Here is the input.
Amino acid sequence: MTPPQAVVVAGLTLQQAVVFGGLALLIVELVRGRRKPALVFASVAFAFMLLDFVSVQQGLQQFTNPGLVTVVVLLLLSVVLDKSRLLEQMAERLVRGPYRWALFKLYVATAFYSAFLNNTAVVASLIGPLRTLRAHAPSRLLLPMCFAASLGGVLTLVGTSTNLLVNSLLIGQQMPGLAIFDLFPVGILIVLACGATMVLAYPHLLKAEPAPADKPSDYFLEATVMPGSPLAGRTVESGGLRQLAHLFLAEIVRGAHVIAPVQPEQVVEAGDILVFTGDLTRLDLLTRFQGLQTHGQHYRLPLDNLVEVVVAANSTLVRRTIKEVDFRSQFDAAVIAVRRGSERLRGPIASVPLDVGDTLVLVVGKDFEKRNNLKRNFVIVSNRQVQKFTDPRKGLLALAGFVTAIALSALGLVDFLKALLVLLVAFLALGLARVAELRRNMPYEIALVIASSLVISEVMVGSGAAALLARALLSGLTHLGPYGALALVLLLTWMLTELMSNNAAAALAFPVALGVAQQSGLDPRPFVMAVLYGASCSFLTPYGYQTNLMVMSPGRYALRDYLRAGAPIALVFQAVALAAIPVFFPFRAS
Here is the structure.
């Protein structure tokens, strides 16, 4: 039988044609976002193994890649580190003073923490304090804070899982891995330049929303008038629904009709759905009305088990109503409030089609956290079931242990992975972490994406597909020299990361970067670093990175706000990266 490498179809070997077909399918599925990236990557990698493009043994060996193991251990450690309250407690001090000074302090602190801690956890820790402080409007702080978290991730190897994925791919190609602070020289220039851009431009680009007293709350919640309720047959005013502190009766849904605005003399009937806007923490005000049932009462009141989530970009809930998806049985949770940026939603909560970026407040049951469909459908913003350390000394101990592990590794005294493993065991021994907690947060999907990416990268390089693709991309840029090739890789990665997750973008761009270096006769390291930095340049839409989505509703942002605030940051990021990468990672190894 003729081997697939020998059959030529339209200038490609059969193997190369199949590889390109697999890549095209991979990109289409990732952009569509209907399937989990882990499933898409694993399917393509498994197909390549079935076709003997790489042996099954080689494929399984990728799960023992030191870079992959480091990612898994770091993410497990972050479960413990996220329990520290230090960042939340600092929030009020950070935003004191004039806006520019507050923005500068917030930017520096967020970028610093994100260089070592999980970006999502950093953003989640700051959203609550920033949107309740009165010093500055949340709309002027949340997006800069979110961008600062992404930028801080390019300062160290442990800043993002994407950095560690690229490091895994490097090791998989038998190249030396990156040290913890190898990213810092270029990263700090990017952080400084983008920070200066924010401080100078954002006072003009980000306008303050009206204060809460001037504008009704952007949440809305509902309660049903049950048969036999004393409210039935009474007017809104005589029933005591008119002058509720902290809650405002916005409309009444009666069958297929919506009564809005609600007049004081409007008579309430049994079966009416009363739609309120206001402060969710005062939902207890409704419990004093006999026969008025909120959705949360299926669980328990007072609502001490509230969870705030954002509908994810690849959620199966998008364009479907809560009633259609049977929300309660799917997630063991009831939706008591919905918010969509500054948009005013109308009608019963159960009949509102959900959209990407919608914020839902849930009353959750005991099985909520055990559901395996949470991560695909939601980004969890605040979760009262996740216990922070009540003793601040435990948080400081965990942070001190992590800093020590990084310092010992940076000084070359201990292997980084060994230091992390020892730290994880120490956290378990000291009671800072529980086995059940770590098992629940095991990053299976990220591990599968990385292992599958290693297989796909190996096939692309080994089959010559990466070199062919690089040659095609470089065909019109040869006159621009090495900088043109580097700009190509940066722009390609940037484009991919705005369309899909950072990890997926880096995994796809990495073999292309190797091919570009090979075709240009240059050291691959600057091109690999272009992939690493470029994958963190996601500022133009709320969908490129989950932290962008997390601040969308609390900050009342629309897509135009991301474009207006993100475009200057992205351009400065790209310009600094293009100029600085060759300085610290030369095109020709000495």
Summary: The first helix runs from residue 14 to 32. The chain has 22 helices and eleven strands. Residues 210-218, 297-303 have pLDDT under 50 and may be disordered. The radius of gyration is 26 Å.
